Amino acid sequence: METLRDFERDLGEMREYYSQGKTKEASWRKSQLKGLLTLLKEKEGDILNALMQDLGKHQVETFRDEIGTLVKTLNLALESLREWMSGRKVHTKDKARGKQTKATKQGSE
Questions:
Q1: CB 46 within 8 A of CB 40
Q2: What are the BP-aspect GO terms (predicted)?
Q3: How far, CA to CA in Å, does 26 sit from each of 6, 9, 18, 23, 69?
């Protein structure tokens, strides 16, 4: 079992790694996403069994709602990574920022 000292050491190492900027590199991000896909494939049976035991969730339902959704999302992230990392500015709509626009004010009356 890890001690608090081990945790603090690991946290310090992670912070150092992060401060070096390596996590900003597309190659690092891509490898992390691929690692998650590999983990899902390797542990699929364990995940299916755990959700069946813990929640009574059927394996087809588990794959559709949990594993399959994650695989699709990870694949989308892999395909879109370069675009998402581009330096272009994106305008956020007022509604997304929580501001009331004229249209939302009228709709709430």
A1: no
A2: aldehyde metabolic process
A3: 29, 27, 14, 8, 23
Q: CA 80, 90, 99 angle in degrees (round to 5)? A: 125
Torsion of CA 92, 95, 100, 102, to 10 degrees: 90
**Token pair in block for residue 82:** 């370069």
Q: Which two tokens stand for residue 34?
A: 């691929």
Residue-wise pLDDT tens digits, 8-45: 999 999 899 888 887 788 999 999 999 999 999 999 99
pLDDT tens per residue across span 54-64: 999 999 999 99
What is the pTM assigned to this prediction?
A: 0.64
Answer for the pair 66, 51: CB distance below 8 angstroms, yes or no.
yes
Indicate the domain borders of the chain. 26-81
Q: Name the one residue in this structure whose structure tokens are 């009228």.
A: 106
